[in-house]
Amino acid sequence: MFRFFAGIITAIAVIWSFQYFMGKSKQQEEIQLNSALLEQQIKQVGKLIVTEGQFSQVLSYKNTKKNYFDIFSANKKALVIVNAKVTIAYDLRQIKTEVDPEAKQVRILFLPEPEINIYPDLQYYDVSQDYFNKFDAADYNKIKGSVNKMVQAKIDQSDLKDDAKERLINELSKIYILTNSMGWSLQYQETTISSPSDLDNLKF
């Protein structure tokens, strides 16, 4: 009789152990599948997002050159119409993430800085120049440098950077929605993202 009960207990223990390890194996397999799916979906988010703007300005350029012991002066001047295309890009292909299957957490380790590009189209009007002070490459480079500074100042005063950041947040919210739907959490710089609105408060 003792052997009979011992056999039953042993059988139950074997079945329980089998089910336990099978369940644990399935859980580990599910976590691995979720990890692979998350990594694949995050890669799909990685793309180049570009925000464009247009700025126009009229620039007056004048240069005076003294000659012959400052007795005579030679002038040159021009009216420059500036039409500049501006792009602010976030290359999300550079984003760095870490997937932690044990904690069921995705950590954003690095976000790229915005790349600001200025493409000025310059048209010159009312160009006048004296014989001893003609336009040369240095003048055109100086004008272009002034234009870039002027456009950069306009960018800082506009909403273009905010619009670009908003598009970045929209892309990051896709990662949050994905992780949240799978029961995982999203973290950036020790901050856990609990809702899409938390992304608006992040500093990057």
Automatic annotation (TrEMBL):
<protein>
    <recommendedName>
        <fullName>DUF4230 domain-containing protein</fullName>
    </recommendedName>
</protein>
<dbReference type="Pfam" id="PF14014">
    <property type="entry name" value="DUF4230"/>
</dbReference>
<dbReference type="InterPro" id="IPR025324">
    <property type="entry name" value="DUF4230"/>
</dbReference>
